[in-house]
Design a protein that fits this description.
With 123 residues, the protein is mainly alpha-helical. It folds into two domains: 56 residues, Arc Repressor Mutant, subunit A, CATH 1.10.10; 44 residues, no CATH class. Helix content is 51%, strand content 0%. The N and C termini lie far apart (72 Å). 7% of the residues are buried.
Length: 123
Amino acid sequence: MQCIRKTFRETGEVMRTPVCAGRPRILDGLDANFLESCIERQPDILPTEMQDQLREIFGVEVSISTIPRTIRKRGFTRKKFTCPAVERDENNRIACEMLVGEHFWLPCCAHWHHGMSPIANSL
């Protein structure tokens, strides 16, 4: 009860304003809005590309993991596999096909048999 009285005398309010604990965010609201607009303009954009754009336009250096975390906090779900993102680099494409293998089917690669990767099957 004494804490409530003290708070009321000091602030004129019964409850204290909550103080955000933890480390301050690197990306502010403007940066997060920019990431959202990047996804709306180009749904298959990679986090590395968003990282480059943040660096070039805003001069903000963030880790790759910060970008998906920020996007999730804004209500976006995880990104889906898309062929343009997968096929940009041959090594990445092969690694992705190996990873995806028998567990997923990419709709943009309709010539595949459901659940079968031509790369994974040839090994």
